[in-house]
From TrEMBL:
Keywords: Acyltransferase, Transferase
Domain of life per record: Bacteria
Known EC number: 2.3.1.-
Enzyme type, top EC level: transferase
Keyword Kinase appears in the UniProt entry: no
UniProt-recorded name of the protein: GNAT family N-acetyltransferase
GO molecular function terms listed in the Swiss-Prot or TrEMBL record: acyltransferase activity
PANTHER family in the cross-refs: ACETYLTRANSFERASE, N-ACETYLTRANSFERASE DOMAIN-CONTAINING PROTEIN
Species classification: Bacteria, Pseudomonadati, Bacteroidota, Flavobacteriia, Flavobacteriales
CDD domains, A to Z: NAT_SF
Keyword Transferase in record: yes
Domain N-acetyltransferase: 4-172
Length: 172
């Protein structure tokens, strides 16, 4: 992807990461969830203390996506015990993959997913996996187009609302 780059986030990116996380998650899911549950989730998942701890975990990495020099999205990957499920040494979880609304439709999400696969291969991983909300049909189609297949499901909570994620895997 021309002019697209990823940059590994560090402790100095905490404020920007928190803001970007809230912005992209809100754009994607706020209208589809109970406002109280949604607000609770934003406060739990994207609070500075939690993000600081995640940034400091060597098994979790956040990457900012840039299109030219503009911040366009971000990705979070987990290995080892940082994975939300499985925790197998040969797998890498793509926990978050978000592109800011104004940059969507330019192939940046597909490019970022390809970069995740390249990163996993370089680290000797055999597969990528992720969870995607069963009602997010566009995302499910996107991941299937890129070779992912559903292999299981697990609950995901937005506040007190128990939702179901499809777990999808791509063998590398």
């Amino acid at each position: 992807m021309e002019n697209a780059t990823l940059r590994l986030c560090g402790a100095g990116d905490l404020e920007a990461l928190a803001s970007l996380s809230r912005e992209t998650f809100t754009h994607a899911f706020a209208a589809l969830n109970n406002p109280l549950d949604f607000q609770q989730h934003l406060e739990e998942a994207f609070n500075p203390e939690r993000l600081r701890a995640e940034l400091g975990n060597p098994d979790t990495r956040f990457y900012f996506l840039y299109s030219a020099s503009q911040l366009a999205g971000y990705m979070k990957v987990n290995v080892g015990q940082a994975q939300t499920e499985l925790r197998e040494p040969e797998g890498m979880e793509v926990e978050r993959l978000y592109v800011i609304a104004e940059f969507q439709g330019r192939g940046l999400g597909a490019w970022m997913l390809q970069q995740a696969g390249d990163l996993a291969r370089k680290e000797g991983k055999r597969y990528l996996w992720l969870g995607v909300w069963e009602e997010n049909l566009a995302a499910i189609r996107f991941y299937k187009r890129h070779g992912f297949a559903i292999f299981d499901k697990h609950p995901y909570y937005v506040g007190t609302d128990r939702q179901m994620d499809w777990m999808m895997r791509l063998d590398l």
